[in-house]
Amino acid sequence: MRSEIKLLIEAKYGDLRISEQKAADYILNDLSIVSKMSLRELSDQCNVSQPTVLRMVKAIGFAGFKEFRNAVIAETARNEGTTTVHHPMYGFPLEKEDRLEDVPRKIVTTTAKVLEDNLKNISIKTYKKIIEILKNARMIDIYSVENSNVAARDLLTKLLYLGLNCRHMDDDYHQRICAGNLTEEDAAIGISYSGCSRDTVEAIKAAKKSKATTIVITNFRDSIISRYADYLICTSQEQLFYGDAIFSRTSQLVLVDMIYMGLLLSDYDRYSKRLDASSKLIRNKAYMDEEF
């Protein structure tokens, strides 16, 4: 069973200071050992100050270290006797000798790790700001190429259902033209796993030059496209094996769902009505039971 305390840490990780992340990393690596430590012992092991550990603990929702440690002790006791097997497939070592029946487990395990990294790398402050920007944008452009088109088109569909004015282009000429005609009232979203796809980078660069607010979804914080981002969401910092794009789809689609649900929640009455109206417009595109 996934640790609730680890999920709390991962959910706030992106907003922690670098020193606080050091403490968080130590706890995430071995949560159970914390139950046997004092505040001083933990700070020494993390090589940070005691106030830093306290700030980290309070940032994830606990009143102090004592409450945090008691929660760890309680969770450890609940999980005592439960055997959990971890398979950290960081590089997804697919070997010639692997059995076909091992593939589903490896895919699910790797995907779970990717999604956990997603949660750690998202700044809630940035996420909230992105929701507000998209909610109020006059026009939303979405730029992508190749594999990232899957997430881009999914995002386009969801935004259209909510009644937002948006468009997606995967043609370089169309991207550049549209980006060049944006204004400061608009938003541009660039989706690129590597952050180095020339067409997507140039489109975001042009959008920024047009004074539109630029939002970038990528895997690597120091990638080229990040230079032109007003707001940056990184899915991870891990480099998976050749063909890692099959995992980039998963992480990007989860971010699309986060944006969609965030917008819906930001003005529930308004967007739920729009969603219902959009669904009615295409209702005749699906077969009904009575037609059979």
Write the layout of secondary structure elements.
Layout: H1 4-13, H2 18-29, H3 39-46, H4 50-59, H5 65-79, H6 103-121, H7 124-136, E1 140-143, H8 149-161, E2 166-169, H9 172-180, E3 187-192, H10 198-209, E4 213-218, E5 231-234, H11 245-266, H12 268-281
Parallel strand pairs: 1-2, 1-3, 3-4, 4-5
Helix pairs in contact: 1-2, 1-6, 2-4, 3-4, 6-11, 7-11, 8-11, 9-10, 11-12
Description:
This protein has 292 residues and is an alpha/beta fold. It is built from 12 helices and 5 strands. The chain has a 5-stranded parallel sheet with strand order 2-1-3-4-5, with helices on both faces. The longest helix has 22 residues, at 245-266. The protein is globular. The two termini are 43 Å apart. 33% of the residues are buried. One of its GO terms (molecular function) is carbohydrate derivative binding. Keywords: DNA-binding, Transcription, Transcription regulation. It holds the Pfam family HTH_6. Residues 130-269 form the SIS domain. It comes from Candidatus Anaerostipes excrementavium.
Largest sheet: 5 strands, parallel
Tally the helices: what do you get? 12
- Strand content is 5-15%
Whole-number radius of gyration? Answer: 22 Å
SS-based class: alpha/beta
User: How many β-strands, per DSSP?
Assistant: 5
Average pLDDT taken over every residue: 84
Question: pLDDT under 50 segments (min length 5)?
Answer: 83-90
Distance between the termini: 43 Å
Task: Give the overall form.
Answer: globular
| Helix coverage percent | 40-55%
